[in-house]
Amino acid sequence: MTADTIKEALKQVKYPGFSRDIVSFGLVRSATFVDGTAQVAVAITTSDPKAPTTLKAEIEKCLRALPGVKDVIIELAVSAAKAPPAGGAGGATGAAPAGLKHSVAIASGKGGVGKSTFAVNLACALAQILEKRGRPGRVGLMDCDIYGPSVPLMMGLQGRPEIDGESLVPLERFGVKVMSMGFLVDDNTPVVWRGPMIMKTIQQFVQNVKWGELDVLLIDLPPGTGDAQLSLVQTLPLDGAIIVTTPQTAATNIARKGGLMFQKVNVPLLGVAENMSWFEDANGNRQSLFGDGGGATTAELLGTTLLGQVPLFPEIRAGGDTGHPVTINAPDSRPAQVFRDIATALLVRLKV
To answer: Can you tell me whether residue 117 is helix, strand or coil?
Structure first.
């Protein structure tokens, strides 16, 4: 029995609320095995009082199952997360950028539900509403999908961010300030990174980008409950999260897990948005291609509200492909009105 054997076994232990294990998160500081005793040192930062107990029990269960292990010693160092600013939430250990009033994660759990398309159109709808209130340029969109950033395409943005001192200056279009990995790598260069590099990038997007004065910063998260999600909730005090799902069970089951993850790390859920809710044929008849009622059921199970339903409008897809979101390209259309209604509901929840 070696230290490497113990660490390999600990890869079975997931951090509470996440799909990633404690070893790949870098939480295991040391591991030894002497005379039948397995001893490990683990360090975590959390504001959840249940997390240390849960984690310690899982570690002990894992180690005692190893052959030759007679006793287990676990040194669990717990650092309390700093309290978020007024109006904020979550277990973030860093402060929000100066000038940022509200930050909201857009998450799905499952890929392929149109989360980035939703985030782009929601950001543009928020910008339109706030501009009418005399507050232009007060919306930000942070694209945290490191492996597959699609926000630049959907926003019609190209080029590299300028550098001001030690900070990146986000690109801006349609009244929305945008930062994405898509601005920093070539279109033909895949991002092949391990977890720590992803976490560092997200921290830089929060701390080293000159966001300026923002009423709302939307964070478009990749699917899942892994590196990006944990890094974000530990870096930025979130005011809440919106869960995006399509109606079918295959999507809602995973969306619910995504919502539970945020609840475990003390990030409130602001609501569920149902995407691709139905399709209208030429006669105006609704066709529920992906089932019916999944968004409402997910919201009920998570104890939150259904912010709205976004039907399958071809205009939404076309707007994303051309870099002209439907909320901008056809502001008086039905699709645009759906997004503005959801944006209005979000602003009410945030008390903006």
So the answer is: helix
3-state secondary structure 149-167: CCHHHHHCCCCCCEEECCE
H/E segment holding residue 40: strand 37-46
State the alpha helices, DSSP H only, in the chain. Answer: 3-10, 51-64, 115-132, 151-155, 195-207, 227-235, 249-264, 294-302, 314-322, 326-329, 334-350
Q: What is the pLDDT of residues 249-293, one digit of tens each?
A: 999 998 998 888 888 778 889 999 999 998 988 888 889 888 888
Segment holding 270, helix H or strand E: strand 269-275
Tokens of 137: 């340029």
Side chain identity, residue 164: D
Q: Which residue has the tokens 């809710």?
A: 277
The total number of residues shown for the chain amounts to 352
Using a 10 angstrom Cβ sphere, with 0-12 exposed, 13-18 middle and 19 or more buried, the burial of residue 263 is middle
Q: What is the pLDDT of residues 148-189, one digit of tens each?
A: 688 999 999 988 889 888 888 999 999 999 998 888 776 655
Q: Which of 175, 174, 182, 192 is nearest to 319 (CA)?
A: 174
Domain ranges for the chain: 3-80, 103-350
Q: Report the mean per-residue pLDDT for the chain.
A: 85
Question: How many other C-beta atoms lie within 10 A of the C-beta of residue 179?
Answer: 27
Q: 50 pLDDT exceeds 90?
A: no
Q: Which two tokens stand for residue 39?
A: 């001893």
Question: What is the architecture of the domain spanning 3-80?
Answer: 2-Layer Sandwich (3.30)
H or E stretch at 79: strand 71-80
**Structure confidence at residue 86 (pLDDT):** 38
CATH of 103-350, one of 3.40.50.2300, 3.40.50.300, 3.30.230.70, 3.40.50.150: 3.40.50.300
Q: Can you give the pLDDT at residue 191?
A: 53
